[in-house]
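name: query_chain
kind: protein
chains: 1
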Amino acid sequence: MTKLKTRYGSGVREASSYVGQNCLILDSSITHEILNILCQEEEFDYCVDLTAVHYPKREKPFDLVWILYSFPRNQRLRVKTMLGEQESFPSSVPIWSGTNWLEREVYDMFGIRFDGHPDLRRILLPEDWKGHPLRKDYGIIEQDQQWVQAHLGIESGQ
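structure:
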């Protein structure tokens, strides 16, 4: 973390450790490059998870969060970056192929697009589903009732 902070300066907004897990909070402009460095040079050879968090009142309302693991070091690292409402992010599938479905899930649940993803489409919900259910401003009951009525012809149990 010290090496990255020295190399990228203010682009590394925070480098901290809590309960033995290191965390980097990065400017979105350098995050993809650093993810590549972490995999290629720092031996973080496995992406355990990729998710997002929605903070609708912030200027940049989304956090993208990668949990990385290094088998050679037996070490975890959390990497975070913030994105604006219509911002997309470069796909990390070329870095870790296992992020394919994780990016699809983030797209499906939050609406965050990943540039260069090989097959970015919904993974959990039907293609014609409106909206993204893990956004904090999403009205799930209304959407569920509309979809169930349109596709199943019955009243929703919600």
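note: Strands lie at 12-18, 21-26, 46-54, 62-70, 75-83, 89-90, 114-115.
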